[in-house]
Structure formats: structure tokens, C-alpha cells
Model the fold of this input.
Amino acid sequence: PQVPGSRTPAHQENNCFASININVGPGDCEWFGCPYEYWGVIERMCRERNLDFLKGSFWPNFEDLLSEGVPVYRFVWTCIRFLKPCEASPKEFIIVKR
Done:
């Protein structure tokens, strides 16, 4: 669980397990993601910044991701709603840029 206003840096779920999230409020939560196929770009961006993706804390710059051609998806979910990102309906995602 996280306290309101907290943020989680970019990460891959432990052992590549699917994640399930719940927003317990107050208010809506915002979540961003990009397809796994773009991992190579993310890894390169980390290397260029001397960051270890698995051990460090990477906060990718939104504009940098877009300029690299990485599609970024934004999802907003309301209080007391479960979210299983790997099974979310495409209509639930807002494609920010492709």
C-alpha cells in the first residue's frame, strides 16, 4: 500500500508476475505504462544516465520517451476499483502518443 500522493518509479514486476492494483483513495490515481517491446529503449536510456533499472530509481522524462518513439499509455482509475494492468481493456487506456 502507498500513502496518498506517493509515487512509484518505473519498474518491472518481480519475477515478471502480473500485478493487481487497487485504489483505496482518496481520489483518482493515475498510472502510466509502455509496451514491453520497448524495453531496449528504456534500458538504453538508463545506461546513458548511469542507472541500473532493477536496482535504481528511474523517472523517465515523458518528452524523452515520446522523442524515442515509445508509446506511452495513461490510465486513470477511481477509488475502490481494482486494476490488473495486463488485462485492462484497450478502451480503458488513453494513448498519449504513438
Notes: The radius of gyration is 14 Å.
